[in-house]
Amino acid sequence: MCTLVLLQRPGELLAVSGNRNELLARPASGPRVEKGVLAPRDELAHGSWLGLNRHGLFVCVTNRRGAMVDPSRKSRGLLVLEALQARSARGLHDALAELHGDRHNGFHLAYADLSDAFVSWSDGFAVHHLPLAAGQVHVITERSFGAGEAARERSVAAAFAGLEPDLRAWREPMTKHASEPLESACVHADAVGYGTRSSLQLLVRPAGASALWTDGHPCVNEPRDISGLAAALFSPPR
Question: Does 238 fall in a domain?
Answer without folding.
Answer: no
